[in-house]
Every structure is written in C-alpha cells, then in structure tokens.
Amino acid sequence: MVLTPVVATGKVAGAWWLSRRAFAQVRLPHWRAGCLIFVASAGGVAGSAWAQTVPPTGSEGAPVIGQVSVSSPLSTNGANNQPRFTLVPSIRMAYDTNILRNVDQSGSGRDNLRVTPGVDLAYSRLFGRVALKFSGSVGYDFNDRIRSLNQSRIISEGSMGAPVGAACSVKADASYRRLTFDLNDTQAAAGSTSATQVYNVSANCTRESGFNPVAGFTYRSLESSQRRVFDYRQYVGSLGVAYTQPSIGTVTLNATAAQLRRPHFAELTGFDDDTDVYTLSVGLNRSVSPRIRISAAGGLTKANPRRTGVRSFLGASYNAQVEWLPTPRLVISGAALREVTNQNGISATYVIRSNYTLSAELQLSGKSRVSLIANRSQRDFRGEDLSPSLLPIRADRSNIISARYNYDLSHRLRASFDLSHRRREADNPTYNYTSTVLSSSIGAHF
Questions:
Q1: Residue 215: left (phi > 0), alpha (psi -120 to 50), or beta?
Q2: Do 41 and 119 form a contact (C-beta atoms < 8 A)?
Q3: Can you tell me the distance from the alpha carbon of 363 to that of 371, in angstroms, rounded to the nearest whole number?
Q4: Can you name the CATH fold of 8-444?
Q5: What's the pLDDT tens digit per position in 172-211?
Q6: Hey, where are the domains in the chain?
Q7: CA distances from residue 163 to 129, 132, 218 in whole angstroms, order as listed
Q8: How many CA atoms lie within 13 A of 319 on its CB side?
Q9: 35 Cα distance to chain centroid
C-alpha cells in the first residue's frame, strides 16, 4: 500500500479520501504473520484517540484536584513560524488480539484488524493578544472481523488564551470526540457510539512573587447511542490562592466542588443516582534544578452519593508528576493519581480511581524518537447495578506495557508504530482478559 500525502498551508492544496465502497473490495488479512507485516508496513503508533490502547495519562473524568501541567522540552513547540493551516490525509491501522475484551479462553474470532482512512487538520493564529488553536481528525473505521464496529470517528479540540491586564490571563479549552464505545469495561455496548464533550475555563494571575488567585470550571459529558444508562455529566468548579516565591516555587491551596450526574438513570430505574464530591488540596510546582521538575497536589476528598445503600467515601486524593532529564535527549517521567470520578462503560454511582505511570522517551535524532511506558490502574466501583445483563466488576487492576517509535516525515507528517500488551484482573473473573495490540499510522502530529 502506497500513500502519498498532500499537505496544505494557508490554502488547501487538496484532500484524499477512500470511499467505503472501494474499501469494501479490499480483502483484509486475518490473524497470521502476514497480518503483522501488513499492519507494520504503515510505520507508526496510532495516537490514543485512535487506537484506544495507549495507557491513559489522565482520567476518564476531569481531575478532582488540580495540577500544573509539566511539558517535556522534547515536546515543547516553539512555533511562531508554524503554518497557520495544515491539512493532511492519514491512514491508521490497529491489530487487536482480543477486540471484544473477552475472558481468556481457547477459540478464534476475538482478533480483529481495523483500518481507518481519514483527514487530519490543524489551525493556529494570533489575533492581537488572543491566541487560537484548533486540531482535529475525521475518519471511518473498517474492521475485517467485527463488522458491527464499523463507524465514523471524529476527534477535535481547540483552545483560546488571552491576557487580562499585565499579570492575569484567561484560557478556554473545548474538545469533542465521537468514537466506537470503549469495550475495556463492558461488552453490553458493543457496536454503540459514544460522544464525549469537555469544556474548561481557567483564570489566574502570575507574579514573580506573592499571592495570586486561581479559578477554574470544567464541564464533561458522555452520551451513548445505545445504552443511556452509561451517560453521565460532570461539573467541576475550583477556587484557590497560589503563593509564588522563586526559592520554593509555587504553592497552591485549592478548594474543589464536583457534581457527578447520571441524567437518564432516574427515568430508567425510578430513583436518583447522583454524587457530590468535595476536595481540599495543597499543591507545589517547582523546578528543583534545570533537569528536574515537580508538580504535585494532595488533599482530602469527600464523596456523598444520593442513592440509598451506596457507601460514601472519605479519603486521600493526589495528583503528582515528576520529570527528569538525565541528558538533553532522554526524558524520564513518573505520575501518580487518585481521584473520585465517573466512568465510561460502567454502570456505577462513582469510581475511586488510582493510576500510576512510568515512562522514558529517547530522542534518537532530529526526526525520530522511541519511548517505553508502563502503567498500572486500580478502580473501586461504588453502587454498581446488580442486574443480570450488567454483572458487577466490584474492583479491578489493569497493567499495560507499551513501546512506541515515531518518525517525522515532514513538519506536520509523522509515521509511527506502537506495540502494547494489557492484562486486567477483576474481583469478578468474568471481566478478566489479556490483549495485545499492534498499531501503526501515517498522519499529522500536533
């Protein structure tokens, strides 16, 4: 398969599309060595938005406690000279040995090859002191074995930032994702589509030293095309004060109130299943040295479910990241997170989620890099429905190991390759499974 990309800057030079009818005539390989060669030939890793197999770095819901993001020097864009508009055709492939996340058992029919032709685009511009950015992808999933998963996918995100006065600034972010329903948690929604929207507004005032106010609000929603019991809404508001001192960094005291809502649960069951969450946290953001940076927040979280019979929660929550640069080409990062949130694909009142990630990224050359990622996630589900069609998970533990290789073909075009292995163990053995995914892509990187 030969793919000739077309890149447009300023005005669109052209676009590439592969029609569903034409693609249906292509015979896709099955689980053989030839399949692996076919998948690897495209050369790269499908991003987490496409493969849905990359270990998560954040949560399904907005964090209950805030954090200051840590950006690697290897991924920082210095880009006043970047093109304002870029349009790139793309193709992504993912071979999964257990696409439906079945419990481990002998037999065939669980593996699947997905091919997603599409278009990636990006736009950025500065209007006076207001900076606008937008990136997105549109494509269609073709599956060789599980045809019920064939459907379109749309991924888009944008941001706007503007200074207010000499020391303050306001930033707004929005994202929309329409994808195949994530089957990592349940098969009850196989063939369904999930649409996720996230809107975030934050404001802060930054001074070299002294006290500064911080505030933020996040709205997040998920809607399933088939199983409305999985739909949720999340409202998170935070207000705090930060103290900056060059000798110690920035210390932040933050109070957060979150509402976890299941909007259709009452009409389906006859009773309310919402939860209110309150958190008080203290955070520190500090560059220990030119090669070490720490961002950490920890506090106490209280979850009050409205549904009778569901246990409340009072315990520690935290969100921390450490980044170390042993050499200019090597970045080693660690992250730890514990929060109370909603969960996609689980009919639970709320979830207590812990996530731990260790990663290393090595810049091999100016155009290529390789990375290794290890991730462990633990979840405790509170208030699961005990209906026959949705057996409770109770709690689970997932381990993921992945390796990636990226090669920049041009300023905006990247070829990538990813190999990952995932194992989940649940208190209910029905949900135990292992899965290995080999994915590749040629498309835009932002």
A1: beta
A2: no
A3: 9
A4: Porin (2.40.160)
A5: 999 999 988 777 766 566 678 889 999 999 998 888 888 9
A6: 8-444
A7: 7, 13, 20
A8: 25
A9: 27
